[in-house]
Every structure is written in structure tokens, then in C-alpha cells.
């Protein structure tokens, strides 16, 4: 008996979806990998400020907070430019590579050419602002690709699987390079020489990721991929009014903002190098264990991401987000209790305790993986919903408006982390892996490492209660968009109006 072939999403839903080749998806999301290399370097920025520019710990937190606010404010301006511009060869590659060039120059200037040269806080801030501009250009264009490359509900979550692989694997691998290779070579201290060597290596590696990403988006990076649903006899322009309309009238986007901002502030705090020093170096007594554990849990975590992508493709991004947020909340609670009742210095010396800690951390990491996949697919859904709602195709504007709120709220992350360590005694110097553990360090570390993510999970569950873009609703959105595009085909190309 002949096997009945499995129906495609287009056949099942009655919509002709736009699909991408697997290698295009994998390559296009390498822009995320390139960005995460720089993100890892920014995690070392507080150490660079202190040892390379003589900036006090408390002042360093204020500088990082202010510059993150600027990062959020510049995003909408750049997004409007990106959404308004069209090149015959496409615009994704132009802004992706242009942003990479700018951010690479700034990183080398900060970590290599200017460190320990007596330049002071003013020069540091000026160069860091340049970095932010390049970073925003690259990130906005890179984030656009996930919405543009496919709208197939089964394939779209897989785009986020690749993005998640790079988002987790790349910083973990490069953190290992920092902790296992560079840090020991410089006496296990964050020195100027160690930071400079790290930066040069990271920038060179990011170039490889960036080139492959440009290849991945080349087929879809063309003007017709960014068309609006306005009358094609009149060229639709994008303005600040569209961004304001998106923010105030797009209900699903508002709820997505609440969820994303709460999760991001927890992520920013947890990812700070100083928090990793507290958790792994001081409490566990083995700085290298933390980075090694992160990589080990990533391998099965990818399986969670694939399972989550399939779940999301079948049931929708909302269902996946709610289900796996609950799972993550439960395991974060269990892991917090474990760390409170067990002497953390004894974990590595006891096989049962090591296995228990590893299992809980693995499951928590897996749930986080699924949440990241669902969140990325959800943002792409919102781009298509906005096209249906307003007739404007605004992938850059959606990304940047989210970035604006995200950056303003999560800008507190660096200040919160540095302020928290100041409260437990580190007011003039940064914590080092060789410091002795104490009860205040334990409580503060657990609060920042697990407590904030748990609070973010609660906010996500609250926001999702009224989120209406379910799997069935997104099918109707795609049908309406397809019908309107068909109706505009006979109108001819767009022309500008006075």
C-alpha cells in the first residue's frame, strides 16, 4: 500500500505560504550569532570600565544604564530609515554589514586601542555611543529577516530554533574561550591585556558569522519582499505616526512588550559577567564549571527547542509560550530551594548533588529554550498581523519599537546588577572568583540569578491571558493578507505622490 504523503501547511490551511530553504534559514540567523559574540563582549564591559578606564563601579553602572536608554531611543529612528529605504539589491545586507563594520571598529577602539591609555570616562562614552549605533543597525536588519524569510507557521518556529541555537551556543562557547583560555593565561584576573586579546579574537570570529548571514538572506533581500498593502499606484511611506499607531493600537504587540520586557531585564542581569562570578566563581568555587555546564546543557536544550518549535507550529506561539513558561517557573523554584538548603561548595564534591543540580538546571534551560523559540515566532506573527491591520509592512519598525521599550526597561539591568553587588560590600572593586562566599552573596545571587526570571515568567503569564493571535487566528490573518495582495496585483507599481 502506498504511503500517504503528509500535507504541507499550505494544503492544510488553504494558504500559499512563503517558504525558505533550510540552509537559507540556518545561514540567515547567523547574524544573531555574530551579534551574540558582541553581546558577550558587552558583558565584560563593566570590567573594562574599571580596569581600562579607571571608572568606579557605581559610576560604571550609571554609564551603562544611560547608554542603554540611548540605544532604545536610536532604534526607532534607524527603523524608520530602514523601512523607508529600498535598494535594487535589497536592504538587509546593506544595514547588516554596515552595522557590523561600525560596531567592530568601536569594540576594537574600546578594548584594544583606548584601554589603559588614560582616556577617561568621556572618551569611553563617546566610542560606546558609536558602538550602539552600529549595533542597532545590524540587530534591526537581522531581526527583520526572521519575519521576511518565511510565513509558514510550521517553518517559522524553526527559524527561531536556529536563532536560539546561535543565541545560546555562541555566547556559551565564547564564554568558555574567555574563562578557560584567556582568563587563566592572565592569572585568572580581568586585566586590560586579557580583555584586549579577547576582543580581537571575538571580532575576527564574528566576521565569519556575518558573511554567512549575508549569503543566507540574499535570495529574499529584494524590494518586493517589503511591499505594503496600500494602493500600489501610491507609494506608502512610513512615519513616526505608524510607529505610534503600532504601539497604541496593536493589542497583541502591547502584550508581547509586557512579556518581553519583563524577561529581558532578568536576562540582562543574569548575563552580566559579575553575576556569573558570584554564582560560579564564589559560590560554586569553580569559575570554569559554570561555563562548561552551560555548554553541556545546551546540547539537550536544542532538543527542547526543536520539540518546542514543533509544538508551536502545531498549536501556535501563544500556547507554546504559556505551557513552557509554567514549566520554567516550576523548575526555577525547585532550583532556588535546592541552592538554599544545600551547601553550594559541596555540590561538585558529591555525585548525587551534582546530578540533582545538573538535572534541574538542564530542565530549566530547556524550558527557556522553548520560550525563546516561541517568542521569536510570535514577533514575526505580529509583523504579519500589523500588515493585515494597517496595510503597512513594518518588520524594522516592529523590531525597533519593541527594542525601544525593551531597552528603556532593561537598561536598569546593568545598574541593578552592579548596585546589588555594591549592597553586599563590593563598592570600590569588582567581585573576583577567588573571593570567599557568604550568606549575603548567596541570597543576592539567587535573587538575581533565579528570582528575577521567575518574576518575568509571572508577567508573561499575565500578558498572555488576553493575547489573541492563536494558531487559528493567524491562519485567517494570512488568508486576508493573501487576498488583499491578489487584489492589488492589477494596480501596477507604486508611484510617489507630492
Automatic annotation (TrEMBL):
Keywords: Membrane, Transmembrane, Transmembrane helix. The keyword Transmembrane helix applies. Signal peptide: none annotated. The chain crosses the membrane at residues 53-82, 94-113, 119-140, 161-183, 199-217, 289-311, 323-342, 354-378, 408-429, 441-464. Pfam families: MFS_2 (PF13347). The keyword Transmembrane applies. This is MFS transporter. The lineage of its organism: Bacteria, Bacillati, Actinomycetota, Actinomycetes, Streptosporangiales.
Amino acid at each position: 500500500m502506498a504511503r500517504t504523503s503528509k500535507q504541507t501547511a499550505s494544503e492544510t490551511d488553504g494558504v500559499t505560504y512563503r517558504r525558505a530553504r533550510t540552509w537559507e534559514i540556518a545561514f540567515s540567523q547567523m547574524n544573531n550569532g555574530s551579534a551574540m559574540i558582541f553581546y558577550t563582549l558587552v558583558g565584560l564591559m563593566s570590567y573594562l570600565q574599571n580596569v581600562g578606564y579607571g571608572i568606579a563601579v557605581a559610576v560604571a553602572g550609571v554609564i551603562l544604564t544611560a547608554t542603554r536608554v540611548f540605544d532604545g531611543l536610536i532604534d526607532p529612528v534607524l527603523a524608520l530609515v530602514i523601512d523607508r529605504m529600498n535598494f535594487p539589491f535589497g536592504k538587509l545586507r546593506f544595514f547588516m554589514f554596515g552595522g557590523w563594520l561600525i560596531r567592530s571598529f568601536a569594540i576594537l577602539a574600546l578594548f584594544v586601542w583606548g584601554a589603559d591609555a588614560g582616556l577617561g570616562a568621556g572618551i569611553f562614552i563617546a566610542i560606546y555611543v558609536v558602538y550602539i549605533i552600529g549595533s542597532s543597525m545590524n540587530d534591526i536588519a537581522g531581526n527583520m529577516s526572521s519575519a521576511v524569510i518565511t510565513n509558514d507557521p510550521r517553518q517559522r518556529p524553526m527559524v527561531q530554533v536556529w536563532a536560539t541555537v546561535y543565541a545560546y551556543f555562541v555566547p556559551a562557547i565564547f564564554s568558555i574561550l574567555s574563562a578557560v583560555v584567556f582568563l587563566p593565561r592572565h592569572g585568572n584576573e580581568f586585566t586590560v591585556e586579557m580583555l584586549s586579546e579577547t576582543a580581537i579574537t571575538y571580532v575576527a570570529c564574528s566576521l565569519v558569522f556575518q558573511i554567512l548571514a549575508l549569503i543566507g538572506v540574499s535570495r529574499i533581500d529584494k524590494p518586493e519582499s517589503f511591499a505594503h498593502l496600500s494602493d500600489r499606484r501610491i507609494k506608502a511611506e512610513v512615519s513616526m505616526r505608524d510607529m505610534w499607531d503600532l504601539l497604541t493600537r496593536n493589542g497583541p504587540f502591547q502584550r508581547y512588550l509586557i512579556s518581553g520586557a519583563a524577561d529581558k531585564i532578568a536576562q540582562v542581569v543574569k548575563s552580566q559577567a559579575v553575576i556569573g562570578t558570584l554564582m560560579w566563581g564564589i559560590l560554586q568555587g569553580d569559575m570554569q564549571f559554570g561555563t562548561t555546564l552551560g555548554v553541556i546543557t545546551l546540547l539537550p536544550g536544542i532538543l527542547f527547542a526543536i520539540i518546542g518549535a514543533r509544538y508551536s507550529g502545531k498549536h501556535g506561539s501563544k500556547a507554546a509560550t504559556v505551557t513552557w513558561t509554567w514549566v520554567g517557573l516550576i523548575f526555577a523554584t525547585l532550583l532556588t530551594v535546592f541552592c538554599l538548603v544545600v551547601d553550594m561548595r559541596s555540590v561538585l564534591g558529591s555525585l548525587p548533588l551534582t546530578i540533582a543540580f545538573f538535572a534541574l538546571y538542564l530542565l530549566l534551560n530547556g524550558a527557556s529554550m522553548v520560550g525563546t523559540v516561541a517568542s521569536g515566532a510570535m514577533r514575526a506573527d505580529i509583523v504579519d498581523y500589523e500588515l493585515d491591520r494597517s496595510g503597512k509592512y513594518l518588520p524594522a519598525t516592529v523590531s525597533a519599537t519593541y527594542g525601544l521599550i525593551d531597552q528603556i526597561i532593561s537598561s536598569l539591568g546593568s545598574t541593578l546588577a552592579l548596585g546589588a553587588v555594591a549592597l553586599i560590600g563590593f563598592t570600590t572593586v569588582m567581585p573576583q572568583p577567588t573571593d570567599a562566599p557568604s550568606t549575603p552573596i548567596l541570597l543576592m545571587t539567587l535573587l538575581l540569578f533565579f528570582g528575577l526570571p521567575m518574576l518575568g515568567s509571572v508577567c508573561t503569564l499575565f500578558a498572555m491571558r488576553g493575547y489573541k493571535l492563536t494558531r487559528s487566528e493567524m491562519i485567517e490573518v494570512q488568508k486576508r493578507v493573501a487576498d488583499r495582495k491578489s487584489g492589488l496585483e492589477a494596480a501596477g507599481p507604486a508611484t510617489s505622490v507630492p
